[in-house]
Amino acid sequence: MGEPTDTSLSFEALPINPEQLRVAREQSAREQFDDSMFEQQAPNPSLGRGAVSYATSQQPPVETPRSYTAVAPQKLEVPESPTSEVVRLGLNIRAMRSSYDKAA
Amino acid sequence: MPSLLSRALKLLTGEDAKVDVDWLKMPKNRPLKKYSDRELIKLESEIGSELFGPIPKRHRREFFCLDERTWIWHEEWVDDNHRLQVATTRYEIHDHGILKVQEGARYSYLEGEELHNLTLAIQMYYERVAREIYHVDPETGEPLSQK
Fold it and tell me: Is A65 within 8 Å of chain B by CB?
């Protein structure tokens, strides 16, 4: 993670390993999971977070909570054809941008 | 009790009758602020700049997807002589490889570790912007809140 000393920036100087990617995905998925679970478990906003945890301790949920691992992609390795995969991701990003207005 | 807005309008119009100010109110279900493509790219770039760890002091880094075939890595920093240094690298996705384009007409196709790292960085970028900006599942494209 060295500072660039000239204009020869390259990704060799800033390596990313698959473990870093896995941790980032799990953390992101976990945060999403926590948020969604809190929303599901809060029947009355005025009760607040403490009351929600009390209620859930008295009445365990019938459904098994969705595990965050279920939304964490398992594919960590570089694909066989990086070029087509990068184009695919780029197209997805552009699609998300163009649909953002409608979703907001 | 009349609202401040009602009283203000009454003062302006001089009418005692009930003043209808509903049309002035912002609808509660109004959409969130809409962003232009440029603003969205800026938001994405904030995530992109974090993919490589902490940004060194006096550095500014941007890494973003310009379009499906172009990625930009821009870095600025102040050197020991207090001069601003700028480096911009453009990655062009061609069918037969990823071309790195830098200042000074330097071109090279990525290979080996560099290609591997860029691909992983792009995957991380996609994962994070999908979840954190667009709130969709990066695998399915479905909104995360509906899962």
Answer: no
Which chain A residue is nearest to residue B142, measuring alpha carbons? A96
User: Are B68 and A91 a contacting pair at CB < 8 A?
Assistant: yes
- Chain centroid, CA A66 distance in Å: 15
Report the distance separating Cα B49 and Cα A11, nearest Å.
Answer: 13
Please give the ipTM for the structure prediction: 0.74
Q: What span, in angstroms and rounded, lies between the C-alpha atoms of B111 and A11?
A: 11
Show the tokens assigned to A92.
Answer: 């997805």
pLDDT tens sequence across B59-69? 999 999 999 99
Q: Once rounded to an integer, what is the mean pLDDT over residues A1-15?
A: 54
Q: Mark yes or no for CB contact B129/A94 under 8 Å.
A: no
CA distance A62 to A81: 44
pTM of the model: 0.61
**What is the rounded (10 degree) CA torsion for B17, B20, B21, B22?**
160
SS3 B62: strand
B127, B138 contact by CB (below 8 A): yes
What is the band of A16 on the pLDDT scale with cuts at 50, 70, 90?
A: low
A37-46 residue pLDDT tens: 444 444 444 4
Rounded (10°) angle between helices B112-132 and A18-41: 10
- Distance in angstroms between the alpha carbons of the first and the last residue of chain A: 37
Pair B120, B113: CB distance under 8 Å: no
Q: How many helices (H) and strands (E) does chain B have?
A: 3, 5
Of B34, B124, B144, Cβ closest to residue A16: B124
- B108 membership: H or E segment, kind and range: strand B106-109
